[in-house]
Design brief:
Carbon starvation protein A, membrane, CstA_N
């Protein structure tokens, strides 16, 4: 219990200390016009309040990742708490804040456009492919996952196929309609349900004195499960996730003032970390037999079964159902914005304005057609590819942020250090994994280190050249007229 509570406390302290430090390094310009006003089109660029933007950001980034990931990560024992806390404060929240703020400085640009500007034009095409693939996988996974949970909540009274079709219809509307018409109106209610359900589970863990294991040398990772690099791919959205870099531009286009960025981007990642801590603790403590009991439930019904049983055990039938619905909200409110982001990224890539419905339609329809086909694939296979693509995208985003700060002659290590760490893990993982090259772990580690050194040397060469050439860091606003 002490490890769990200390982790929650550190996350909160991290927001007020390291979050403030990162904000100071970036350098907020409160009087600078934001894209929400300058590019207001009534569709994607729409000024919205900080509370609304914060809840939308939280729900955008918090798919099943901060629930299902920590539940699976709980099998590694209390070491999962360490990654959630350290990863969230020093990597995930930094990643989200910097990508969001750099996007604001560049007319709400998405990651492929930012990669093109700061890492070279070739990277625009590479990152565009990565981002669209990632978003398609996210959207597809987040159709089947909530559908399965709702099917369980309804005791199978409604056919799974009907639930999937209903979710697809909602996703289509959320992708096409102006951001403030559907997402902006529903998300505050969804956000309240999510927060209440997570807090309910967390409070009951404390009240009931749940036997949450403490971190020690004897239970650092039960059953000697290999922590590196698998833990960093099992728990992603609750600590560090490249998916977030595809979501922050949605809110960078609706943020009213740069000074709101720390609450919206850094703060909501910290909130997601708290949610991840709660579900990791619940998974470690609720089931008889400890980790063996957790493994049995996972084998029988996957993370969804853990959510269902843990919620009911802690909150009773009614409270448990509400908690499950809170979890159902997570993938739905990330799946809808995943498709929306994919539509925006493709439109930005081919330079097609999105004010006309027809332009949005002919980009969105093929996306949903491909996703419908992907729903027929094995979920576990999709998730493994998602995990690798997700963390690869996080590495790219962190290197974009590091380049921005290097050119600006600011402390770029806050982005570069976590970027290098995850680069080693990403290369090592793909060299060793079944979906990759299937090399031995020792060979994979050597390849990961060598590959990282080569890429970091290339980064510094490009960074020095960009600084020498005075590469512009942001869009010129000298001719902009603020509407606010």
């Amino acid at each position: 219990m002490y490890t769990f509570l200390a982790g929650i406390a550190l996350l909160i302290v991290g927001y007020f200390t390291y979050g403030k430090f990162v904000e100071k390094i970036f350098g907020v310009k409160a009087d600078r016009a934001t894209p929400a006003y300058v590019n207001n089109d009534g569709i994607d660029y729409v000024p919205m309040s900080t509370p609304k933007n914060s809840l939308i950001q939280l729900l955008n980034i918090a798919g099943t990742g901060p629930v299902f990931g920590p539940i699976l990560g709980a099998l590694y024992g209390p070491v999962a708490f360490i990654w959630i806390v350290i990863g969230c404060i020093f990597a995930g929240a930094v990643h989200d804040y910097l990508t969001g703020m750099i996007s604001i400085r560049n007319k709400g640009a998405h990651l492929p456009e930012l990669a093109s500007r700061f890492l070279g034009k070739v990277m625009k095409h590479v990152v565009n492919g990565f981002a669209v693939l990632l978003l398609l996988l996210v959207g597809t996974v987040f159709v089947t996952t909530p559908a399965s949970l709702l099917h369980v909540v309804m005791d199978g009274k409604v056919a799974l196929s009907i639930i999937i079709v209903a979710i697809f219809i909602y996703y289509i509307l959320a992708t096409l309609l102006p951001v403030d018409k559907l997402i902006g109106r529903l998300y505050p209610y969804f956000g309240a349900l999510l927060l209440i359900s997570a807090l309910g589970v967390g409070i009951m863990l404390i009240v009931t004195g749940a036997p949450i294991p403490e971190l020690s040398l004897t239970n650092f990772h039960p059953d000697n499960l290999p922590v590196l690099p698998l833990l960093f791919f099992t728990i992603s959205c609750g600590a560090l996730s490249g998916f977030h870099a595809t979501q922050t531009p949605i809110i960078s286009r609706t943020t009213q003032n740069e000074k709101q960025g720390r609450k919206i981007f850094y703060g909501m990642m910290i909130t997601e970390g708290v949610i991840a801590m709660i579900w990791a603790a619940a998974a470690m403590s609720v089931f008889d037999g400890g980790y063996a009991g957790l493994q049995e439930v996972l084998a029988a019904g996957g993370p969804g079964a853990v959510v269902s049983q843990a919620s009911t055990a802690l909150l009773g039938a009614i409270g448990g159902t509400l908690a499950i619905l809170g979890v159902v909200v997570l993938p739905i409110t990330s799946g809808d914005t995943a498709f929306r982001s994919a539509r925006m990224i493709i439109a930005e890539y081919i330079n097609v304005a999105q004010k006309k419905l027809s332009n949005r339609l002919w980009i969105a329809i093929p996306l949903f057609a491909v996703s419908a086909v992907l729903t027929q694939m094995d979920f576990n296979l999709l998730w493994r590819y998602f995990s690798w693509a997700n963390q690869s995208t996080a590495v790219i985003a962190l290197f974009v942020a590091a380049m921005y700060l290097y050119i600006a002659k600011k402390n770029y290590y806050i982005a570069l250090v976590p970027g290098i760490f995850m680069l080693v893990m990403v290369i090592t993982y793909i060299l060793n994994a079944q979906i990759g090259f299937r090399l031995s772990m020792n060979t994979s580690w050597i390849g990961g280190l060598i590959g990282t050194v080569v890429l970091v040397v290339m980064f510094f060469r490009a960074a020095k050249k960009a600084r020498a050439n005075n590469l512009p860091l942001e869009e010129d606003i000298s001719n902009w007229n603020r509407v606010a």
